[in-house]
Fold each of these.
Amino acid sequence: MENTLEMKMFQNLLTDFIEKEVRPIAAEIDEEERFPAEAVKTMGKIGLMGLPFPREYGGAGGTVSMYAYAVREIAKACATTAVALSAHVSLCCTPIYEFGTPEQKAKYLPKLCKGEWLGAFALTEPNAGTDAAGQQTIATLQEDGSWILNGSKIFITNAGYADVFIVFAMTDKSIGIKSITAFIVEKGTPGFSVGKHEKKMGIRGSSTCELVFENVHLPKEALLGQVGKGFSMAMKTLDGGRVGIASQAVGIAEGAIEETIKYVKERKQFNRPIAAFQNTQFVLASLYAKTKAARLLVEDAAAAKDAKSKELTVKAAMAKLVAAETAMEVTTKCVQLFGGYGYTREYPVERMMRDAKITEIYEGTSEVQRMVISGAIMK
Amino acid sequence: MKIICCLKQVPDTTEIKIDPVKGTLIREGVPSIMNPDDKAGLEVALRLKDKYGAEVTVLSMGPMQATEVIKEAFAMGADRGILLSDFKFAGADTLATSSAISGAVRALKDYDLLIMGRQAIDGDTAQVGPETAELLDIPQISYAKSVDFVKGEFVVERKVEDRTYTLKAKGPLVVTVLGDQVEPRYMTVEGILRAVQEKEVEIWNASQIDVDPESLGLKGSPTQVKQSFGKQLKSAGVTHDNVDAAAGAKLIADALVEKHIL
């Protein structure tokens, strides 16, 4: 993929954007816990926010593989900016594109794809994390076909800046998971508010907030897909989302290795650069090989999504599991190679280590990925 | 409005080295880029297109590899691209290059504005723009930082050192643009995909342009490069702050005497 003129130009575009607008502010937005709103706008203008969608909906007409490539390249410089892109594309645009009516696609996708609107996905609740079936949010059907939504969501990526939210709710608690249903909720709908902003260990510029729904009246056009199909739609959406997060994890690992290679060539101890010590060489060699292996799994999962393969679920789970754990190992060991300087905010590796941790948790923890993989291989 | 915009593919001189023995540029492994002043010129053309709906044709000369900068121009928003590529163009100095460009522009006939970068980073001559205007016998405004179109005339802001002049001229004319005054736009993903999958670069040979063949390539080039060499590094100068004119003059005179120049 990398050697075509198309990919060379795509890489040039990404490098141009990242060096001008992403890397220069990466440390700052982490420090200030500030959402990279300007970079997100630019991502819309250059076509990243709608990359894998057809042009008739305002997309760039590209592939999931290119989108995953972009998330990875951006994450090398700034994991926060990368997750804003990933949550928007994988978790908001994709379910509208895959499950929406022609009217919903026409209404939401063009603005989402151009980055004029930002998207978010709201499944997690205080008591429904890995056990996503434990939803408490309730949507009650009204006589005229509209809905009243009540409940709350937590840890919602992009929440403070999003215009469009995919929200999951139960329509009938007595049948539980079989009643979970998805809705498209717009910012500013009366009764819908964005609550507390979470203070996090990493991806600190990402806007992660609580959502509160108090008698929110939703028109019948807000229903996404069919009543009661929400849980399977959420799981399918997360299969794609995991490709994005796995790409982010590989990007963090690659970024940390790049920074470390630069550093160990300059840093001298015992009268020679620490790159001259076999420990440094062997550690970096192992980390590089592991990261490359993770990257190949991610590329394979992205290709499975492009091919609409049934194997996407297990491939995405393997990619995310391996990429996230690799990112954590790589960044931890890179901080170690930096020594005391690596522990300071003077260098980016401590930030990368903090950012890596979330990739083992969100959009399905590593334990969930192991459940998905074992389920697929032992059925 | 029809705009022709000239682009050169150049080695990225921030990454280039000079062979210490031969004194020639080592081009191997050096990435090729769109010349920065030309990219700024393309941006000026695309801003006119955004505002007034112009058709932007980009024109380059070079080996087939130079189609890459034309594809990049497509990905930024150019409509049509032509590459002059023929061994008869090879070995051209600035005059022969200007002859080829003017021949291609004459062959294109219909245009209102010819935009070029001020100069190329691999040559720094700034001659091709003005020479092309002379050969086409049309007006020229060099060192532009912006171009607008008001009441049938092009209005050009021309920046020379610390001044900006606003000049007006009727088309067709040549404008050369300053790279450090215009921030070029990004390519777009859709632009890249369309540039590679759908758009074709037209390849023109010497017989397709309207010019005397004797004025092209090595034959048409009066300039001969005698030698290339790297800059000698000089040590940093001495700065004297808060010195009045008389004391300053004495400091300079003393320094010149010390070096036996005076």
Amino acid sequence: MRLEYFQMIDRFVAVDVGGRVARAICTVPLQSTVFEGHFPGYPLMPGVLLIECMAQTTGWLVSALTGFTGLPALAGVKEGKIRNAVFPGDELEFEGKVIHEGSGYAVGEAKGWCKGAVICDATLTYRIVPYPSAELRAGLWEWAERINFPAKEFAK
Amino acid sequence: MRGPMRPGLLAPGWAGASSSKDQRARLMSTTFDKVAEIIAETCDIPRENIKPESHAINDLEIDSLDFLDIAFAIDKAFGIKLPLEQWTQEVNDGKATTDQYFVLKNLCERIDELIAAKGA
């Protein structure tokens, strides 16, 4: 997890675009300035960052389904639940499923686990927006390779 | 012996001697009722304020994010995919007005067309 870059995923361990499901591993770093403030003397992974882990896992899947034609911008989080505390060093696994691909939007369901126990889940809505810069889209392939996502296979 | 025929037992598609115009109006009314229920539930708008002539944006003040939730519910309920991107493009290019897609009776007509196209 590159917390300072807000890039939460270390690597995808399963990507089934046809089956509309993907799984990713995110390991919480031992050190981060985030933990100096949240909280002093009690470093705790912020729940909103768990939502972000779910959003990124499912977001990459939405990108593949839509052929990397636009950026899946997180537009809605429903029934978001943080069920357990997560600490520095914890290895987390997330699963994202796309349950509906609409015109210009997509809806997914995501869940996270730590040591076999569910830590969070949510229903996520994405608005697919045109890439705001060519640089962003061009940089996706290297990023995808780093996290083991087969992006080029699905790019239109 | 056959008992008296009760209207409630007629098959939903039974049209008797009514014209295709009547059928279209009946279909539209069913679609409108479902769409109005979806809007009422999704946006917490009293059902009685939602009328066929209501404009989703101008009259009901539904914003684009809430409209995504409505589109999701409509797609699911009718088994269709509202072409929101195409509609937005047409409005932005001046080829269509928002009334054509967001006045509810017009939206319901578009939905009925998409359902018919799916079955064709």
